[in-house]
Amino acid sequence: MTRLLSDSAVEYRRTIWMMVVTAVLALVIAILGARGYVPVALGFAAIVLFGVCVLLVAVFGVKLQQQTREDLDKRNRRGMIVMLASALGKQDDEALARIAANGGDAGEAADMILLTRRARAGQKPPR
What we know:
Blueprint: H1 7-35, H2 40-88, H3 93-102, H4 104-121
């Protein structure tokens, strides 16, 4: 099964959950401070910590969303290149060289096909 999130996205997610747990604990301590069960200064510090944690969760959430979107774009691009390569596999080498010269995703797929054909024929790829 393919992983949906990259390593950096997993780290963002893990950090977000750690911040959420810390925020909940800080909120509990702040409530206890407001009710007088713990010193008021500790309750005040806890409410400040809660605010910082909520802010960090928001920042890391935006970063996680950006990273996930980039990962999805990469995966979709790879799939598109594979589909293009399968469609271009029927072309002759001259047509593939023209397509590769144009660049872009189709050019990358055509270049992959040409490299594979040269490797099968025992030729060295041009540098």
